[in-house]
UniProtKB/TrEMBL annotation:
Keyword Cytoplasm: no
Keywords (A to Z) from UniProt: Transferase
Signal peptide limits: none
GO molecular function, one term: transferase activity
Highest taxon listed in the record's lineage: Bacteria
Pfam families: GT4-conflict
Protein name per its UniProtKB record: Glycosyltransferase family 4 protein
Length: 367
């Protein structure tokens, strides 16, 4: 007779699984709140007051190796320091990653991390990592009201920087002092496209190409690609000399969202969905090879894709709300009117009591 001792049947597994089942039964928002509160207290703590005269230079903590907006933000900051000749020390900080190195003494630390997970991300640092230095959070916010769990990040910083006025106004009620608006330094670290061109991409030479570029790892509802597809179809129908490229990165694990894209594009030979995960240089080359960049986002904390497209000289059509309004108006782009609606994110990430975001006017975008 064979007796199985798998984890599913051992007594210890049952003792462990009961708390786990209870935890999973809690609403997602309550779990995020509890984790943020706990980890913000367990994480290394900064001094109550920062040094009066911080050392020169800047330590930048962030997900430098991550293929995400936050990762790109950290890389942009590091590159900007190089351009300006500012001494800096970059440190990879991520949830579950141990950081054994000592940061330069008294050097201000800029934390380019998700405020929802700041405490968890800092758990891997040495216990004295935040002591004796000015600690600055560099946080985006995609809603006019931050999710409640984000407030726990405030105990871990002395000052707050935000990449847009929109984000700064959202955080202002929680900040200890003035919130500094520090845009992403895209002009100091401009896009550097590869040599990838239309021929390699399979795009017809004489066709007008409209590009929609976003990550499926972000909020599908916030990026709102279905509105972009609807606007394109309304504007151009089945015209073979018009082509819509939906560049949807990080598609793995997001089959449902991909299915929605394919359903919205069904029957349209002039709409292509591109899920190839490309380098930043190749992604910039795609932007350069397009004729129009379209972003009917419901909200942006800044809007790196539109900003970098404008630096590359591409016309941008974008929702006239949230972070992109800092650099895009009718003098340099095509702002699309909108109406505000309650923010509803099926993933539960971009939600807060009373929060709203924008529904772009599809007919206006198609005009």
């Amino acid at each position: 007779m064979t007796i199985s001792t798998t984890a599913a049947t051992t007594p210890s597994a049952h003792r462990l699984s009961m708390p786990h089942r209870l935890w999973q039964s809690l609403p997602a928002g309550a779990r995020r709140e509890a984790l943020a509160a706990l980890t913000s207290r367990l994480a290394p703590q900064p001094d109550r007051r920062p040094p009066a005269c911080p050392a020169g230079g800047l330590a930048i903590g962030g997900g430098f190796s991550e293929a995400s907006g936050l990762g790109e933000s950290a890389r942009l900051l590091s590159s900007a320091c190089d351009t300006l000749g500012l001494p800096h020390h970059d440190v990879e900080i991520a949830t579950g990653r141990r950081v054994r190195e000592r940061l330069p003494a008294a050097m201000p630390l800029l934390l380019n991390l998700n405020p929802a997970q700041l405490g968890a991300s800092l758990l891997g640092l040495r216990r004295d990592a935040l002591r004796g230095r000015l600690v600055v959070g560099y946080f985006p916010c995609e809603l006019p009201v931050p999710p409640p769990s984000w407030r726990h990040a405030m105990r871990l910083i002395h000052r707050l920087w935000c990449p847009s006025r929109f984000a700064a106004e959202a955080f202002a009620p929680w900040a200890r002092g003035v919130v500094d608006v520090v845009p992403h330094p895209v002009a100091l670290s401009p896009p550097a496209p590869s040599t990838l061109g239309r021929a390699a991409l399979g795009w017809p030479k004489e066709t007008v190409v409209v590009l929609v570029s976003f990550s499926l790892a972000s909020s599908f509802e916030r990026k709102n690609p279905l509105a972009a597809i609807a606007a394109f179809r309304q504007a151009f129908g089945a015209r073979p000399d018009r082509l819509l490229i939906i560049k949807a990165g990080h598609a793995a694990g997001h089959d449902g969202d991909l299915a929605r894209l394919r359903e919205a594009a069904a029957g349209a030979d002039n709409i292509r969905i591109d899920t190839v995960l490309r380098s930043r240089a190749d992604a910039h080359a795609m932007t350069l090879a397009s004729d129009i960049v379209l972003s009917l986002h419901r909200s942006e904390g800044f809007g790196l894709v539109p900003a970098e497209a404008m630096l590359l000289g591409r016309p941008v059509v974008a929702t006239d709300w949230s972070g992109t309004t800092d650099f895009l108006d009718a003098s340099c782009g095509v702002p699309v009117p909108f109406r505000l609606v309650p923010a509803r994110d099926p993933r539960g990430v971009f939600e807060a009591p009373g929060a709203c975001w924008a529904d772009a006017d599809v007919e206006a975008a198609a005009a």
